[in-house]
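anyone seen this seq b4? input:
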Amino acid sequence: MDPHPVTGELFDSPVPPGAGWPGDPATRHTAIARSAREVAELAAGAATLDHLAAGISVCRACPRLVAWREDVARTERRKSFAAQPYWGRPVPSFGDPEAPLLIVGLAPAANGANRTGRVFTGDPSGDFLFAALHRTGFANQPTSEAAGDGLGLTGARIIASVRCAPPANAPTPQERLTCRPWLARELELSARHLRAILALGAAGWQATLTALGELGWEVPRPLPKFAHGARVQVTSPAGDEVTLVGCYHVSPHNTYTGRLTPQMLDDVLASLGP
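predicted toks r here
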């Protein structure tokens, strides 16, 4: 391990920044957040989405999440992926930097985005989501196998409310709170283009409304409950109106049981238009 040029600390990760992973936004000189305070400071100081993505991708502020994502990447890999390298770092957003639609999910999957390095890529949830995005004109191809596979989004950008794969897919309240400044800053940097936000699941819904409220947006009070197809209007400090739409999460629990069907997701996406 080499010392970090800025902090002098050692960066122990399956894929160190600057190692040449496709789409890696960070370099060996990217500052690393190692506490909630540093997350807030670095997020607030990110001037662009690229700058923000770099900081997110090397964050080490939540010890439990750091240990889990790296253990999975090194020793707990799924057998079918045993021969593949794993990203093993926080996962930044992906898609159109001037997108009018922002899609907010919960967190990367341990053997999905934690492996591929691209949000909702390489697992059944991503297969379901990107196929729908392709059918509705947001994606140039229906599959998402690995970073650098040619996938592109037009008019949409995808983010997670928590950027590291959590054990049992369940980040703690403190981990959600620590990660929230990354989400809040992404919303700020995206605000002038936004027309709609699609929240996948109750966690994405709650995280989005909470972050917007903290940023000074006008949001309904009390906060509206999540439901599939729920729509509420939120207003930015600049006076721009954005529609927040709820959708059942694209998890296998929902898609394999028919709670969320391809047609249901297509209908929601089509109503938001590419």
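The longest strand covers residues 241-247. Strands lie at 94-95, 101-105, 156-160, 196-200, 231-235, 241-247. kinda curious what u guys think
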